[in-house]
Amino acid sequence: MTELATMDFHPQPQPGEAKPWAFPAPERAALGNGLTVLRCHRPGQQVVAVEVLLDAPLDAEPAGLDGVATIMARAFSEGTDKHSAEEFAAELERAGATLDAHADHPGVRLSLEVPASRLAKGLGLLADALRAPAFAESEVERLVRNRLDEIPHELANPSRRAAKELSKELFPATSRMSRPRQGTEDTVEKIDAAAVCAFYDRYVRPVTATAVVVGDLTGVDLDALLGDTLGAWTGTPGEPRTMPPVSADDTGRVVIVDRPGAVQTQLLIGRVGSDRHDRVWPAQVLGTYCLGGTLTSRLDRVLREEKGYTYGVRAFGQVLRSAADGTGASMLAISGSVDTPNTGPALDDLWKVLRTLAADGLTDAERDVAVQNLVGVAPLKYETAAAVASTLADQVEQHLPDDFQATLYQQLAATGTVEATAAVVNAFPVDRLVAVLVGDASEIKAPVEALGIGEVTVVAAE
């Protein structure tokens, strides 16, 4: 009789004890030219991330020149008093660095990533871009043409078209928030080098700017580097701008952007809420995640898993502009796409999910999963210097304390199910939501009207 062979198994490895983690706290200082500096030493992060925030908000753009902040942001990397556009790009490449910039409602932000070994070179190029940008007529003209070429593509994108329409619906026409962030064809085509230079001269100065530096700073004399680079940037004195209060109309209604023949409908349902200074923010983040933050959320379970209407629906809160005096605002929204024939049934079920949530509340299991996902994965989310720098810059931009993110995770872990339920129900009241549908109006208008969720109007897709 053949004897069966036996196997010896090694003991199964056991997980170690989790190490305590908290979002890193920065050190705060100021240069002689008035530039505020936040630094954060992250051992092992050999790619250093630098974020520079400029107090040049979209609201400051001159009338009729929407988009000039975006063109200025893009032009920062198109040459300086030392280098042409081609030379500047080559110098960045030699340093192994990348430099990006964009404009949004709070202001303009420049983002540099560079190896720690070439930090001096990278900071020098960034400082040159801020101190003496060329803003050459030919480069500005090229950037304007590029931006004009982008606009038709954005209008053809259902999700971008829905976002444009929702902003137009929520905010009064006099508000900059009602119009596209990067301008329209009518406004962008009026932008020239003189307009860019005027905007730069009026709003770009170190005394109202902040630089965030994150990475492995071992052996780096950052004070000396900053003094020789960003510290050489000078500008006229100035005070931070006072922002007007945000007003919005979230009367429940439906707007259909007509796309004849569309095989699916893009949904964007939203309203305006308070910003991160509101004490309810942590509970709202938790409740919104339970509603539509992941594949296991309420909305996905019904609309995706049970009914098969969509590949996914998401609920989110996005800060538009923040202020410590309560004049800030965030966009609270639900987005996704469904096939055209099921647009009416999908909206009906979506509203049922919201009503059920208000009536029965979240479950403890939903709350626990959300906390685990939001808090438990935070150390992975902030593994890179760029992720830390971006979040610190967000805090500065939104006038939040330096320990806000660390405190937020503590608050999320301590938030109960009842509190999260109340916050998400208040965030998405069924009778105060503006629904934008980009789809075939001839197919979806009648079924949507039958739902009784608000007056239905149809606009052309342009």
TrEMBL record:
GO terms for biological process: proteolysis. Residues 1-22 are annotated as: Disordered. Residues 38-170 form the Peptidase M16 N-terminal domain. Residues 190-374 form the Peptidase M16 C-terminal domain. Coiled coil: none annotated. It holds the Pfam family Peptidase_M16_C. It comes from the Bacteria. Gene3D superfamilies: Metalloenzyme, LuxS/M16 peptidase-like. Keywords: Hydrolase, Protease. Signal peptide: none annotated. SUPFAM superfamilies: LuxS/MPP-like metallohydrolase (SSF63411). One of its GO terms (molecular function) is peptidase activity. InterPro entries: Metalloenz_LuxS/M16, MPP/UQCRC_Complex, Pept_M16_N, Peptidase_M16_C. PANTHER family: METALLOPROTEASE, PROCESSING PROTEASE. This is Protease. It comes from Streptomyces yokosukanensis.
